[in-house]
Design goal:
This protein is mainly beta and 441 residues long. The chain contains four helices and 30 strands. The strands form eight sheets. The protein has a four-stranded antiparallel sheet. A four-stranded antiparallel sheet has the order 2-3-4-5.
């Protein structure tokens, strides 16, 4: 097996006194942000002092320094953080935060407030540095906001929450389509009185889930869903995953992934007439907590309270018609593709909830899947060559038992380094891990 070993603890469990809920790297890997809950809710941001925009980072060369601590503005637990996908070298870093107070805040790095000497690692320090300033406040959710996700270009921001809704916001950030060329944004443009060049505008409020919406992620539509280039995927307390697409400027629910798994026509024919073409029953029997989308956007992983991790594959409309004729009656449009459950890991975390899942970036070259669970462990899965895309097989490649003293709430691969991951958990710890593959014999 491969190995997964701790190489640095950025925030020990006894330091914050609050659970760590969510972690996010900037798209280039220069910054890392983590949010912490009550009783002292805040966000910590670290910068890699050895960052080199022209090279691929490796865990042995990192020099993470705490550069900012955000405590103001949010009144309740900060549950999710997400850096906008704009380079922190060419553009000013922009961070979104979501809170149980029902608000989403957008923060911009401010060089004027930078004083590394004030940041310190002592969480009790009264002279903390915060070089991120709030530039916009997005309101609309009726209660707790649980998760945030940017699209690939930073032109859209999704938010979801306890009110069972998913909000889609249009964004005009520096360096994105429609954004300003300057690095200074006017926070007044985010208010109701903003002009036509407003920074953020609500495009849609998506309703359909019957419970809290726990997680969201954007992915490419591959021209199989609506007219837009992207889809939005959501996971919920109602045990389902939903696919949202855009057509004519309107967002709609294109598919609900919950019941039934389809057997490809060719597979049914090869195995005999007794093989059912539809496997009835719910894929998950409890809350779907988390989502992980492969870099190409054609494979999706869902982690659930029921202890399993589902594996989904996107099929094109032509593949759906040819391989899954029994599924055609459920398609909203003849041009729709199909997300089909092609497998599950029924005991991904020893019957404990799967709370976090993340797919390694394409630059890693190994395609590993990382997951964190209610068993306090981090697992790394590799795809077995004995399977195929219609029936994939995964094996446990590495594990860190007791990675945290409590639930592992988040696990993220470094965007430029397939050997580095960050995790955070109920114990308040933020830990960096080194993944090392077993040399081939």
């Amino acid at each position: 097996m491969a190995t997964l070993s701790e190489f640095e603890t950025l925030s020990p469990s006894e330091l914050s006194g609050s659970p760590a809920w969510s972690a996010t790297f900037s798209i280039d890997g220069k910054y890392l942000a983590v949010c912490f809950g009550n009783p002292r809710t805040h966000v910590k941001i670290w910068e890699d002092g050895n960052f080199n925009s022209g090279s691929t980072a490796r865990s042995s060369s990192y020099d993470w320094k705490l550069v900012s601590t955000i405590r103001e503005e949010h009144k309740r637990t900060i549950r999710s953080v997400a850096f906008a996908p704009t380079s922190s070298v060419l553009r000013v870093p922009v961070l979104a935060t979501a809170s149980f107070d029902g608000k989403v805040l957008i923060w911009e790095h401010s060089a004027d407030n930078t004083d590394p000497a004030l940041s310190g690692d002592d969480d009790s320090s009264t002279s903390e540095c915060n070089n991120f300033e709030p530039i916009a406040q997005l309101e609309g959710h009726e209660s707790e906001v649980k998760c945030l996700a940017w699209n690939a270009t930073g032109s859209l921001l999704g938010s979801c929450g306890r009110d069972k809704t998913v909000w889609v916001w249009e964004c005009f950030l520096p360096g994105t389509v429609g954004g300003h060329e300057t690095t200074t944004m006017n926070p007044m443009l985010a208010t109701e009185e903003r002009d036509d060049q407003g920074e953020f505008e609500c495009l849609a409020v998506l309703q359909g889930h019957e419970g809290d919406v726990k997680s969201i992620t954007f992915g490419p539509s591959h021209s199989q869903w609506g007219e837009g280039e992207e889809i939005l995927i959501s996971a919920s307390y109602d045990d389902t995953i939903r696919i949202w697409a855009e057509e004519g400027g309107d967002w709609y629910c294109a598919a609900t992934l919950g019941n039934n798994r389809y057997i490809p026509q060719c597979m049914s024919d090869n195995r005999g007439e007794d093989l059912p073409k539809i496997i009835s029953g719910a894929v998950h029997s409890s809350t779907v907590w988390c989502l992980g989308l492969s870099p190409g956007g054609v494979r999706l992983f869902g982690g659930s309270q029921d202890g399993s991790m589902s594996i989904w594959k996107m099929y094109t409309a032509s593949e759906r018609k040819r391989l899954f004729p029994q599924a055609s009656k459920n398609a909203l449009s003849s041009t729709d593709g199909l997300w089909n459950c092609v497998g599950t890991l029924p005991d991904a975390h020893s019957a404990y909830a799967v709370l976090a899942v993340d797919c390694a970036p394409s630059c890693a070259g190994h395609g590993r899947i990382a997951s964190g669970g209610g068993d306090n462990a981090i697992n790394i899965y590799r795809e077995d060559p004995g399977g195929n895309s219609d029936e994939p097989k995964f094996a446990l490649d590495a594990v860190a038992n007791d990675a945290h003293d409590g639930d592992v709430n988040c696990i993220k691969w470094h965007p430029r380094d397939g050997t580095c991951l960050v995790s955070c958990g109920d114990d308040g710890a933020v830990i960096l891990w080194n993944y090392k593959q077993t040399p081939k014999q």
